[in-house]
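As noted in the main text, all predictions were made from sequence alone. Below is one such record, for Exocyst complex component 5.
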Amino acid sequence: VTHCKEFFFCGQEPFVADEYIERLAWRTPGGGSRGGEAFDPKRLLEEFVNHIQELQVMDERIQRKVEKLEQQCQKEAKEFAKKVQELQKSNQVAFQHFQELDEHISYVATKVCHLGDQLEGVNTPRQRAVEAQKLMKYFNEFLDGELKSDVFTNSEKIKEAADIIQKLHLIAQELPFDSLMGFCCYPLSSPGKYHDLECQLIQEFTSAQRRGEISRMREVAAVLLHFKGYSHCVDVYIKQCQEGAFLRNDVFEDAAILCQRVNKQVGEIFSNPETVLAKLIQNIFEVKLQSYVKDQLEEHRKSDAEQYLKNLYDLYTRTANLSSKLMEFNLGTDKQTFLSKLIKAIFISYLENYIEVEIGYLKSRSAMILQRYYDSKNHQKRSIGTGGIQDLKERLRQRTNLPLGPSIDTHGETFLSQEVVVNLLQETKQAFERCHRLSDPSDLPKNAFRIFSMLVEFLCTEHIDYALETGLAGIPSSDSKNANLYFLDVVHQANTIFHLFDKQFNDHLMPLISSSPKLSECLQKKKDIIEQMEVKLDMGIDTLNCMIGQMKHILAAEQKKTDFKPEDENNVLIQYTNACVKVCGYVRKQVEKIRNSMDGKNVDTVLMELGVRFHRLIYEHLQQYSYSCMGGMLAICDVAEYRKCAKDFKIALVLQLFDTLHALCNLLVVAPDNLKQVCSGEQLANLDKNILHSFVQLRVDYRSARLARHFS
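Prediction:
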């Protein structure tokens, strides 16, 4: 059985019958599971029978053991249930005892509270009677005029003496003077004794402050809190705090350091530290800062506007920065309004007329900068016609339809200066910054607009516009020889300057007016300025006439009739004529100059106009000559060079015009039999027949019957 038990429980995995039989057969000799052994079924059967008997015996033993354990478990369960019932009964008894004890405690507590109320009702009148008796005793001493009590003679008991005198003083003030009692109490109600003690307390507070005894200061301040002289105690504290605090040149930094030091200390001394600190700050602003600001500003107010404005901006900024630092402290409920009122009280007399001073200074300073520049050029400004957009457009219409009058020689001077512009913009930038800081929020957009108007007047009108007008007057007539086209230099510099003007408009003016009705006014004013300048640039289109005039002079001087009808057709060594070379060189310089002088769509507009006029000039120029076969080839080479030059314009229309002109020049050399074919080609098919005929007529062999017959 022991062997069967060990075999039965040999594994820890769940019992599997098939595996159990297999293990049993494997361990039995002759079971057939071991290699090399003969299978013996009888022996295996005998083993199975024996094993079954062992299992039955083992099962009986286990069953008896289980029954024994079940009986034991039932017995213990009954005992445990009985014990739980006993514990529940004990718990109920304890809970009843606890309720009884709680009721008893509540009853006793109620009795104690009632007894305490009765004792307090008896003790309070008794204490009042004792205090009244003491006050009567001290009152008698005052009536006798001899203060014998230790509380009045001992300086260390000044706190108790102050409390007694304060009470007697209040009592005496409530009694009418015309009564006998009031008359007797007059010494107590009069200022003498009361104020004497106040002075002693304040003197004691002052001495403690000088010694740095915070605890004694707090004690005396608490006593004085009930006296009328408490505010005087605060004044003394504020005055002594400032002794030696303003020794450096920077009064604002000294004030910040002082307030920071007092803020740490005042809470340990006074019961209302925020009020004391606010009074200190008010005293600093109304005395120290106001005096300092007045000294700094009054010195330059009438004599030096520039220094006055700089000092005003600097002082206001530093005062505002100090106010921002003080915002960290506890000054009561509305400290923002409190500090704003202090700042306004200091600067109100200076801010009322600030913008008038600003505009006056900006006007005189800008005029001086411009005059100094023109004086350096030995130039006396001429009177320039003024007017609105419509007047400018009328002048443009008249100028383009009527011959030009005599031009003004500017000697190559544009009368525009980067240094002047930078100075004007810098002055205006500083004015915008001062305006932002010093203007009332309601007046800020209006003041900023006035400063902007000054900038427009002196930079745009008096400087840029004057230079454009002078440049227009200096444009030479179209028939002038060796004319210098300085107007494009004026345009280039004016364009650069206006970009700087526009940048200041966006960076410094826009933030000041972005949320006000003045924004539309400023934008309209800027738009008018741009339109005026564009109109004057359009008037400068006369410069293109001068360019075309210069090209005419070059062609007239350099182009010879023999260029296109050489005497020796077989000995032509040049690729294109000298006139073509010089004209192309001149045109390329002017194109580059236009690109450098303008930007945006203006470049394409001007180059298109110049390109069209250039094409018309070359077209008409070629119509003046007769062409031999070799001369026609040379004309084609010239036009090819002109077409290369036209590519620099980067304008499709201009290049197309020269492509067509190049195709027309082919009519000068094509064989008579091929004329109709060439004329019907892609580039010439849409041209008027008269144009084609006019080019064919330029051939020296046009009069031949064969050529006329082929073209007819």
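The chain has 28 helices and no strands. Residues 177-191, 386-390, 395-406 have pLDDT under 50 and may be disordered. These features were considered when defining construct boundaries for the mutagenesis experiments described in Section 2.9.
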